[in-house]
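Predict both folds.
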Amino acid sequence: MSNVSHRSDLSGHPDVDEMRERHDRVMSGGGRSTALADAPVFLLGLYCAVSPWVLHFTASQPALVTHNLVIGIAIAVLALCFTAMPERMTGMSIAICALGAWLIVSPWIVGSSPDMGVILNNVIVGGLAVVLGAVCAGLAVMNKKT
């Protein structure tokens, strides 16, 4: 086993220039400008998904339970995709704004006579989603300009 040689020199690799450029781009923040917003967006999506059980409106608003679960999972998945593939997903940042706007109006469209707690929950979560989505979209636009 001691005769096994580990070659760490990549100078002979055919894609060494491209690999170095990508490494420099990733290390300097290229494509990762929304990284600071990824975690809050993910947590916001998780909260949105579990909010019917946290606020106990599962019995009074069954349609909103499913709605918030699906929208929350969608927001969390988008955040995970932003983290995993930032170069490809930066254009999708505006989708979080759209989901947030939908969350704001959904208690009156999806729900049936929602109470103030349900309305405040969706308006606050939706507003935060719009703000965080706008931050991600703005950072993505600034990143493309540089």
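Second protein follows, with its predicted structure tokens after the sequence.
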Amino acid sequence: MAKLTQDELLAQFEEMTLIELAAFVSAFEEKFDVTAAAAAPVVVAGAAGGAAAEAAEEKDEFDVILTAAGDKKIQVIKVVRELTSLGLKEAKDLVDGTPKPVLEKVAKDAAEKAAEALKGAGASVEVK
């Protein structure tokens, strides 16, 4: 098997959904007995300067919860499928069974983008 370059690996990661990437990170952590979360405070401290204490207190994992599908249920199902890469039946069941989490334990930016996309499709959303 040919060894992939860093650019090739990054290209593969770009094509993954957040859920697929989170599953990969978990598998990577188990396989190599490491924790990716340990590096996060260093990145935050480097980017924010002296705000490391504030960043440690801030919540860094958010859940996007679909509270109601609204009038455009089909559009909401399409957005749920894009965000989660669920099949049509699974996405429909999720939308029909509201309130349900669409994404769990994702970064703030990803949670806000997902909530915005769902609201744009006509759904009611909470980010916790």
